[in-house]
Amino acid sequence: MNCIIIDDEATARAIIIQLCSNIPSLNILEEFPNALQAIKYLNQHEVDLIFLDIHMPDFTGFDFIQTLKNPPKIILTTSDAQFAIEAFEYDCIVDYLVKPIALPRFEKAIKKAESFAATTSNTTENDKVETTSGNDLYVNIDRRLIKIDIPSIYLIEAKGDYIYVKTEDKNYTVHSTLKKIEEKLPNDLFLKIHRSYVINVQKIIDIEDNSVLIKKDVIPVSRSNRPELMKRLNLL
Q1: How far is CA 14 from CA 35, 47, 55, in A?
Q2: Which residues face 219 on adjacent strands?
Q3: What is the pLDDT of residues 74-103, one digit of tens each?
Q4: Global pTM?
Q5: What digits encode the pLDDT tens for the residues 44-66?
Q6: Which of 53, 69, 108, 128 has its CA 20 to 30 A from that of 78?
């Protein structure tokens, strides 16, 4: 994985570089003392993973994430443990490392990042999700193509290598990825509100802070996806 490091402390950057040297799959492209320099770099280059400090002068790590339209995977590296809950409201954050970082804990974070990358990129013969004209979605379940009425879908949840499609009449378990099925759904009806959830916005019953209620399901809304949800509902 191609990586960059963003941390205002040179010693902290050097430690991350040393940790990365123990993992052959990591390739450090650049290191930056502040987020603004990194943004300029990302406008011209693609990376797979960012090691990001939270506390930096003028521009925090969370400020930086909110500027990215399609952020890569991010591992937070910080001396402050109190933002862990807030951090995982962002879909792109795969782990939260508190300094000083031990190599075994670092390796665990990298495996998690690699797992996320594999989940979004790998496809198999069972991962067939196709649409026809009109309101029908076809999914491959046990080598059978099953037709689902798209407007009846109210929630899609990702769990590991499977997605759960919940409809007004029946629920389906499909061996696929959330990204793959999301691409086949109409944008005017469906919205990804969390790394593990896509919802039918017309089925929302209630909104409270960082969650929405659909049927009897309370679904979390990540901080990064909340503005788009509010915009879609004309609440901004």
Answers
A1: 17, 19, 17
A2: 212
A3: 999 999 888 888 887 788 899 999 999 999
A4: 0.57
A5: 898 999 999 999 887 889 989 98
A6: 69
